[in-house]
Amino acid sequence: MARLTQVQWRALIEKQAASGQTAMAFCAEHGIDNKYFSTRKKQLMTQSTESRFVAVTTKPLENQSIQLHIGAVQLCIPASVSPQWLVDVIKALA
Description:
Elements (H helix, E strand, L loop, with lengths): L5 H14 L3 H8 L3 H13 L18 E6 L2 E6 L4 H11 L1
Antiparallel strand pairs: 1-2
């Protein structure tokens, strides 16, 4: 089998999951070494595929607070908090 990129490996792993086959059966059908497939799957599953960044929009600080929107949650934080504290809060929420 030719060398695959991370994107191709992810697609292959998703294809195996959607197939309903065991990894061993899927690998046998596609001519993939089962041990290598399992190793790549474990490596790629431990890596985050989603960006850990949060979209931020800025507005003039009319009321001197920072509004942080994460999904349905909205936090109003005083603008006087330290940047490091804000980083720690965002890390804890991610």
